[in-house]
C-alpha cells in the first residue's frame, strides 16, 4: 500500500497517496489548476505550461501535472505571477486560433474559451496568424479542423495509448500540426472511428461530423446508460435534444483517458430513425407483411400460443435486459408452458463458464493472458477489451497471447503462442509444475506426457512472477484456463460476445427442452424469436413470430412481427461478464408504437388471460462470483466455435446498415 503524504495547497491541508500529481491533489481540495495538455489517468507531459504553480522554497514555478506531492509541501496555485504566465499562454494560443465563439459548436464546453474568459483576454496582443489548413470532412464520423488545434497533444496520446496509433505531430513549434501518418484523411489510415480523440479534444478541432447546428451541449439532456451491442457492455452517456439522440460519449470524467467506446456504441444510434425501423406490429397477409394494431397482433399471438402444443419454441438474444429476460422466462414457463427456451449464448458459451467468472480490475493487473479470444478494435470483435489491454500494456503490464491464429494483439505481447490453445495451456502448466517442488498428484498425472517449449517456459516465468494476473478466455477454454489459476492464483474471466449473457442466464433463459440448434433446424410448430439473432433464413416452423426493432431479413419472413424498443429506448438493468449489475436508462421514447420487450411479454400474458409471476431478477444470484477452481481436463469444450467478429456484426447488422456505420468499408463488404 502506498504511503500518504501531507501538504498544503492554497492554505488547505490535504493528505493524498504518495505519487499523486500536484494537479490531482489540488483537484481533491476543490482547487482547479488550469491545464490544457493533462489527461486524467495518464502521465503528465508538461507541454502547455498552463498548470504552473509555486512550491514554497522552490527555485521557480513547476508544472503541476508532472510534479509529485512531497511531505510538508506548501503550494500556491494562483499568485499574480502565475496568473500572468497563464495569461501569456492563452494570449499566444489565441493569436493562432479563430475567434468565432459565437457560432462555434464547442462554445460552452471549450476549455480554451473558458480560460480566455477566466484570464479576461478578448483578443490576442500578438500578430494574428491564420494557417488556413484544409478541414477533413471526408468521413461521416469525425470532422477535423486543424485551424482550431491548440497542439495540446491529447488526441495523439489517447489514440497511441489505446494502440490505434493513427495520429502524429508533423513539424515543430507553432507550425506543427496533428496529422495521420501520410497526412491524408482518416479513412486512409488505421482509424477505427472510435472517437476517443473527439472526447479528448478540448476545442473545436475534433468534433462529431454531424454536430453543426444540432444544439449546444448545455441544451442536451444527459442519460447515463450501457451499450448493449457487444460483450463489453461499455458505459455510455447519451445526449438528447427534443427526444432525438444527438450524440453518445464514453461515460468517463471529462478529459480522462480511462474509458473507451467503439464506433458502434458511439455512432450506431442513427439507426433508431432508419427506414428499416419497425414502428408498428405487422402480420402476414398472403405474401406480404402489413401493418396492424397491437390489439390484432396480440390476439393472433395469444390464440397461437393457446393452441400450440409441445412443439412450441422460444429463442432470445442476450441483448435484452434482465427484466425482459425474467418476464420472458415467466411467460414461457407459466403461460406458454414450454421448456423449449434457449438463447444465442448457447452458440458461444456454456452457462457455468459465464456464471463462474472471477471479478477483476484490469487496472491492477500486471499480467494479462488472452486464451482463445481475439479482441480487436479493427475487426470490431470486443474492441473495448482490446483497447483496455493495450492501454494496460502501454502502462507496463505484460501480455501473453495464446491463440490458434496469429492475432493482432500478439504484436504487443511479451509471449505470443500460436497453436492449439488447450495444449498450450497444458504446456504452460507443465512448465509451472516443473519448477515447483510440491505438485498435486492429479495435476501431475493430467500433465504426464506433456512436453514444454521455450515459449511455455517464458510464459510460465511471467505467470510465476506476476502479482496480479487476469486470464481472459473463450468460454470454451474456461476450465483449461482455471487449471492455470490453480497453480498461480490467476483470475479467470470467460468473455461472452453479448452484453447481458450473464443476466439472461441468471434469469433462467435456458430450458431443459429443445436447444437453439434444435429449434432453428425445423423441429417446432410455433417459434417465437426475440431480438436480433445471427441467422436470416426462416426456420422450418409452421408459424413464426419475430420480436425485433428492425425489419431484418428474418422479420421479413415472419407471420407476425412485434416491434420492440431498442436498448437506448428501454430501462432496466444488465449484468456484465464480471457480474457487475449496471443500470440501463431510457434516453428517448420508443419509436412509433414499439414497446419495451417486457411490456410486450406482459401484454401477451394478459391477452392469454393470465399474469406474469415476476419481472425481477435475483441480482444477488447474478453477482455470485467464481466458484473454487478444481482440476479439469486440458481441453477446449466443443460446440462453441462461432467467429466473434462476424457474430458481433450479425447481431448488429440492422444498426450498422441503418446508420452512418454502413459507410465503413468492412461493413459494406459484410453486407
Ligand atoms: S477515431 Fe479513434 S482510432 Fe481514429 S484517430 Fe481518433 S482515437 Fe484514433
Ligand atoms: S486536435 Fe484537439 S486534442 Fe488534438 S492536439 Fe489539437 S487541440 Fe489537442
Ligand atoms: S465495445 Fe461493444 S459494448 Fe463497447 S461501445 Fe463498442 S459495441 Fe458497445
Ligand atoms: S497541463 Fe501541465 S503543462 Fe499542460
Summarize this, please?
With 671 residues, this protein is α/β, with parallel strands linked by helices. It has 4 domains: 75 residues, Ubiquitin-like (UB roll); 180 residues, Alpha-Beta Plaits; 180 residues, Rossmann fold (3-Layer(aba) Sandwich), CATH 3.40.50; 143 residues, Dimethylsulfoxide Reductase, domain 2, CATH 3.40.228. Helices cover 28% and strands 18% of the residues.
Distance between the termini: 52 Å
Report the radius of gyration as a whole number of Å.
28 Å
Bound molecules: iron/sulfur cluster, FE2/S2 (inorganic) cluster
Instruction: Return the CATH class of the largest domain.
Output: Alpha Beta
Tally the helices: what do you get?
A: 22
Rounded average pLDDT: 93
Strand order within the widest beta sheet: 14-13-24-23-22-15-16
Using the 3D structure, state the CATH architecture of the largest domain. Answer: 2-Layer Sandwich
What does this protein look like?
There is one protein chain. The chain is an alpha/beta fold and 671 residues long. The chain has a 7-stranded mixed β-sheet. The model has no long low-confidence stretch (mean pLDDT 93). The site of one iron/sulfur cluster (SF4) has 13 residues, from helix 4.
Write the layout of secondary structure elements.
Layout lengths: L3 E6 L2 E6 L4 H7 L23 E4 L6 E2 L10 E3 L3 H15 L16 H9 L22 E3 L9 H8 L5 E4 L6 E4 L15 H5 L5 E3 L12 E6 L8 E7 L2 E7 L12 H5 L14 E4 L2 E4 L2 H14 L4 E5 L5 H15 L4 E3 L7 H5 L11 E5 L11 H12 L3 E6 L11 E4 L2 H14 L6 H6 L7 H12 L3 E5 L4 H11 L2 E4 L6 H6 L9 H5 L5 E5 L12 E6 L4 H4 L3 E4 L8 E4 L5 E4 L12 H12 L10 H4 L21 H8 L1 H5 L7 H6 L1
Parallel strand pairs: 1-5, 15-16, 15-22, 17-18, 17-20, 18-19, 20-21, 22-23, 23-24
Antiparallel strand pairs: 1-2, 3-4, 3-5, 6-9, 7-8, 10-11, 11-12, 13-14, 13-24, 25-26
Helix pairs in contact: 2-3, 7-18, 8-18, 11-13, 11-14
One iron/sulfur cluster binds next to α4 and α5.
Amino acid at each position: 500500500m502506498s504511503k500518504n503524504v501531507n501538504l498544503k495547497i492554497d492554505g488547505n491541508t490535504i493528505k493524498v497517496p504518495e505519487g499523486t500529481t500536484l494537479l490531482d491533489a489540488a483537484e481533491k481540495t476543490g482547487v482547479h489548476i488550469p491545464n490544457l495538455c493533462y489527461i486524467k489517468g495518464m502521465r503528465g507531459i508538461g507541454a502547455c505550461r498552463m498548470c504552473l504553480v509555486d512550491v514554497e522554497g522552490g527555485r521557480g514555478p513547476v508544472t503541476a501535472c508532472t510534479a509529485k506531492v512531497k511531505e510538508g509541501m506548501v503550494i500556491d496555485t494562483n499568485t499574480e505571477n502565475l496568473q500572468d504566465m497563464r495569461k501569456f499562454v492563452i494570449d499566444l494560443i489565441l493569436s493562432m486560433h479563430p475567434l468565432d465563439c459565437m457560432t462555434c459548436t464547442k462554445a460552452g464546453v471549450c476549455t480554451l474559451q473558458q480560460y480566455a474568459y477566466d484570464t479576461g483576454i478578448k483578443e490576442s496582443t500578438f500578430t494574428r496568424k491564420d494557417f488556413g489548413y484544409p478541414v477533413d470532412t471526408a468521413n461521416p464520423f469525425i470532422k477535423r479542423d486543424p485551424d482550431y488545434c491548440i497542439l495540446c497533444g491529447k488526441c495523439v496520446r489517447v489514440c497511441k495509448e489505446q494502440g490505434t496509433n493513427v495520429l502524429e505531430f508533423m513539424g515543430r513549434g507553432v507550425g506543427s500540426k496533428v496529422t495521420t501518418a501520410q497526412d491524408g484523411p482518416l479513412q486512409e489510415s488505421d482509424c477505427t472511428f472510435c472517437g476517443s480523440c473527439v472526447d479528448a479534444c478540448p476545442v473545436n478541432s475534433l468534433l462529431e461530423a454531424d454536430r453543426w447546428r444540432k444544439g449546444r451541449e448545455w441544451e442536451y439532456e444527459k442519460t447515463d446508460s450501457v451499450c448493449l451491442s457487444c460483450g463489453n457492455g461499455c458505459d455510455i452517456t447519451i445526449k438528447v435534444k427534443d427526444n432525438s439522440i444527438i450524440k453518445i460519449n464514453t461515460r468517463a470524467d471529462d478529459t480522462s483517458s480511462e474509458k473507451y467506446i467503439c464506433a458502434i456504441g458511439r455512432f450506431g444510434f442513427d439507426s433508431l430513425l432508419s427506414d428499416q425501423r419497425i414502428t408498428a406490429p405487422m402480420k402476414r397477409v398472403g405474401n406480404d407483411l402489413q401493418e396492424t394494431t397491437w390489439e390484432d397482433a396480440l390476439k393472433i399471438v395469444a390464440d397461437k400460443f393457446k393452441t400450440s402444443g409441445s412443439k412450441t419454441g422460444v429463442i432470445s438474444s442476450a441483448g435484452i435486459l434482465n427484466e425482459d429476460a425474467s418476464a420472458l422466462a415467466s411467460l414461457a414457463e407459466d403461460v406458454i408452458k414450454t421448456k423449449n427456451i434457449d438463447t444465442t449464448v448457447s452458440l458461444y458459451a456454456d452457462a457455468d463458464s459465464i456464471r463462474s467468472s472471477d471479478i477483476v480490475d484490469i487496472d491492477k493487473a500486471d499480467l494479462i493472458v488472452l486464451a482463445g479470444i481475439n479482441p480487436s478494435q479493427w475487426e470490431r470483435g470486443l474492441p473495448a477489451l482490446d483497447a483496455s489491454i493495450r492501454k494496460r500494456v502501454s502502462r507496463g503490464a505484460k501480455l501473453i497471447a495464446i491463440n490458434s491464429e496469429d492475432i493482432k494483439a500478439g504484436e504487443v505481447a511479451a509471449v505470443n503462442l500460436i497453436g492449439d490453445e488447450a495444449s498450450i495451456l497444458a504446456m504452460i502448466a507443465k512448465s509451472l509444475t516443473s519448477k515447483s517442488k510440491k505438485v498435486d498428484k492429479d495435476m501431475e498425472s493430467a500433465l504426464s506426457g506433456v512436453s514444454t517449449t521455450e515459449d511455455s517456459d517464458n510464459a510460465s516465468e511471467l505467470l510465476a512472477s506476476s502479482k496480479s494476473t487476469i486470464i481472459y478466455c473463450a468460454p470454451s477454454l474456461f476450465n483449461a484456463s482455471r487449471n492455470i489459476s490453480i497453480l498461480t492464483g490467476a483470475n479467470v474471466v470467460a468473455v461472452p460476445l453479448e452484453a447481458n449473457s450473464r443476466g439472461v442466464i441468471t434469469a433462467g433463459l435456458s430450458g431443459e427442452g429443445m436447444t437453439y440448434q434444435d429449434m432453428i433446424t425445423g423441429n417446432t410448430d410455433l417459434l417465437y424469436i426475440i431480438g436480433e439473432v445471427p441467422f436470416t433464413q426462416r426456420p422450418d416452423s409452421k408459424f413464426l413470430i419475430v420480436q425485433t426493432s428492425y425489419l431484418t431479413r428474418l422479420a421479413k419472413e415472419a407471420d407476425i412481427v412485434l416491434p420492440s424498443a431498442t436498448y437506448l429506448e428501454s430501462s432496466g438493468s444488465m449484468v456484465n461478464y464480471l457480474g457487475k449489475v449496471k443500470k440501463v436508462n431510457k434516453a428517448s421514447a420508443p419509436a412509433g408504437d414499439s414497446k419495451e420487450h417486457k411490456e410486450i411479454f406482459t401484454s401477451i400474458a394478459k391477452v392469454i388471460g393470465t399474469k406474469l409471476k415476476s419481472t425481477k431478477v435475483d441480482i444477488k444470484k447474478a453477482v455470485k462470483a467464481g466458484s473454487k477452481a478444481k482440476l479439469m481436463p486440458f481441453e477446449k469444450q466443443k460446440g462453441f466455435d462461432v467467429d466473434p467478429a462476424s457474430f458481433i456484426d450479425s447481431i448488429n447488422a440492422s444498426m450498422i446498415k441503418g446508420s452512418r456505420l454502413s459507410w465503413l468499408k468492412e461493413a459494406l463488404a459484410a453486407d
